[in-house]
Structures are given as C-alpha cells and as structure tokens.
Specification:
The protein is an alpha/beta fold. It is built from 12 helices and 12 strands. The chain has 2 domains: about 190 residues, Rossmann fold; about 70 residues, no CATH class. The model has no long low-confidence stretch (mean pLDDT about 95). Bound molecules: adenosine-5'-diphosphate (ADP) and magnesium ion. This is Oligopeptide transport ATP-binding protein amiF.
C-alpha cells in the first residue's frame, strides 16, 4: 500500500535467481539468491562494484543470458527459461535496454533515422511511411536532438548525443520497463545530469519503470526510489533511498556510504572511512538470507546477525 492509498503494482519480481557461466571446473556462479521486486513507475537501482553481477542480472531480465535457477516474473508472466516465440517477441518490446557505451551499441553504418526506427520496423508499429517519420521526428525532439540530424551517422555525435539516440531508440517502443545499465558511466560529468533528467522526464510523462544500474551510490541517490546493494553476486541490502542513506544496516553498505564524497568540506573532515571486512560474518552453520528487518528494508544476514541488528535498532528507537 502506498501513502496515497493505492496498491503497489509489481512489474518485475525476481526470486532466488542464480546465473552460472560455463560448466564443469570452469563454472562461475556470477549471481546467486537474488531476490527483489520492482514496482510500477519507480526507479529501482542496483548498485555494486565492477564485477559484482549487475550486468548479469540485467541480461537475465532481458533474456540474453540463460538463468540457472530461480524465476523472473514480468507483469505476472514467467520470462526466464524457454518461452514460446510469440511471447518472447512481445516481452522484447515491453522491456527495453539502454547501454553503458552508446558508441559500441549503435550501428555505425546506420543513420539515426534507421537506428531509432529499427524497433518500429521489427514490430510494424506504424501505419505509413509518413506516420513512421512523424514518430521518429517527435522522439528526436523529445530527447533533444534536431530534425536536421536525422540522416547523420552515430560517429558524427558526441557521447551525450549518442546516449540520447540510444534513449530514443528504446523509448520509441513505449516500453513498460527500461533496463539502464550504467547509462551515464561513460559520459562526461557535465552531461550526466542532463541524461538523468531526460530519463526522469520520460518516467513522469509515460510512467515508465526503470531498473537503473550504477557502480556509484552517489549517482543514484537523486534518481532512485529504492536501491539494492549487490556484493559478489549477492544482494546485501534493499531499502528506500533515504532509508538506505540514513540507516544503512549491512556493514558493506555502511562502508560504501562512508566512501561517498560529502560536498560540505566541514562535514567531510569528520567523515570516517569504514572498511568492510567480510570475515566478520560466520556463515558456516547459521546460513544467511535476505531478511526484512524493517518494513521494506531487507538485509542479507543470518539468525545471529538478525538478532544483533534488531537489538541495535531497538536501542536507537528507545
Ligand atoms: P558487473 O556488471 O557488476 O560489473 P558482471 O555481471 O558483468 O558484473 O560480471 C559478474 C561476474 O561474471 C564477473 O566475475 C565476470 O567476470 C563474470 N562474467 C560476466 N560475463 C561473463 C561471461 N559471458 N562468461 C563468463 N564470465 C562472465
Ligand atoms: Mg556491468
């Protein structure tokens, strides 16, 4: 239930997901025991260091990577594993992707007009050539590109403009869910905010749901409704953004937050860097899982840690 009384609608639901690359001796389990839900119209961010498994989860959601166990439900339909071709095709329109590196993800030999139209062609989403052109021109305008740039090629654009083309290509499909895998990491600082604002604008206008991926907590604070922190293929904490920033519970999240730069130099002086030591956990017998410690606030812990976290929270509350 939301504060305004309306029910939360779940767009994506991931349960006990695991993805293993390779087999036999060279098998690598990249992610395991992944659990989270994404609600309609929200920005849900997945944050973790490079190699922690963020793109693996993104690719599993998009059906690019096969999953080893668990389930991915999208709007009530299980979408991992083998799907009937028609269903796969329809899901592939509803879930769109924005990539980290727009230079590598755009076809260099195609014009912007073609790149943005490709999905329209694949799904026959226009009535006439005129209709298609109108749709593409409108989308160009929405992402802040000019109509005269329609017949140019990707290499003629800056990184920020190329990301705008990538956003146009995804959003012209009117998706329900957009997976944005580090969409601003490759961009100059000065244009990152512009691209984030553009994504926000589409969300407000079209009610799009985002799975936003970043390796830096400070980037996601201002755009996320909820955040999941991932470490070495395990989700260690999930909470609403302000809750996570003000009351981080998992020691790894606390360490990450201690490294986030503080804009105020006076406050920065008093900031202590916390170093995370995974040896503090004793998971040999008492096994961990993702536990809802407070309503909507999940922490990866075992029974002993859960009791400790709960007593610490009770001490603060009293
Ligand atoms: P992130 O996006 O958080 O940087 P990835 O999901 O790309 O992390 O990678 C998670 C782990 O899986 C890393 O150890 C990476 O080396 C490994 N990995 C990713 N893709 C493949 C692949 N196609 N084959 C084998 N290992 C992979
Ligand atoms: Mg990645």
């Amino acid at each position: 239930m939301l504060a305004n009384g309306s029910e939360v609608e779940t767009v994506l639901s991931i349960r006990d997901l695991a993805v293993t690359y390779g087999s036999g001796k060279s098998a690598l389990t990249a992610v395991e025991h992944v659990n989270f839900d994404i609600h309609k119209g929200e920005t849900f961010s997945l944050v973790g260091e490079s190699g922690s498994g963020k793109s693996t989860i993104a690719k599993a959601v998009l059906g690019i990577n096969p999953t080893s166990s668990g389930s991915i439900n999208f709007e009530g339909t299980k979408i991992n594993g083998k799907l009937p071709q028609k269903l796969r095709h329809s899901i592939d329109r509803k879930i769109q992707m924005i990539f980290q590196d727009p230079a590598a993800s755009l076809n260099e030999r195609a014009t912007v007009d073609y790149i943005i139209s490709e999905g329209l062609y694949n799904y026959h989403l226009f009535d006439s050539e005129e209709d298609r052109e109108n749709k593409v021109r409108k989308m160009m305008e929405e992402v802040g590109l000019l109509p005269e740039q329609l017949y140019r090629y990707p290499h003629e654009f800056s990184g920020g403009q190329r990301q705008r083309i990538g956003i146009a290509r995804a959003l012209i499909m009117q998706p329900d869910l957009v997976v944005a895998d580090e969409p601003i990491s490759a961009l100059d600082m000065s244009i990152r905010a512009q691209v984030l604002n553009l994504l926000k604008k589409f969300q407000q206008e079209a009610g799009i749901t985002y799975l936003f991926i970043a390796h830096d907590l400070s980037v996601v604070r201002y755009i996320s409704d909820r955040i999941a922190v991932i470490r070495r293929g395990r989700i260690v904490e999930v909470a609403e953004t302000e809750e996570l920033f003000t009351h981080p519970i998992h020691p790894y999240t606390q360490a990450l937050l201690s490294a986030v730069p503080v804009p105020d130099p006076k406050l920065a002086q008093h900031k202590k860097l916390i170093v995370y030591d995974p040896k503090i956990h004793h998971y040999e017998n008492d096994k961990p899982s993702l536990v809802e410690i407070l309503p909507g606030h999940f922490v990866y812990c075992n029974k002993e840690e859960e009791a400790k976290y709960r007593s610490e929270l009770a001490a603060v509350a009293n």
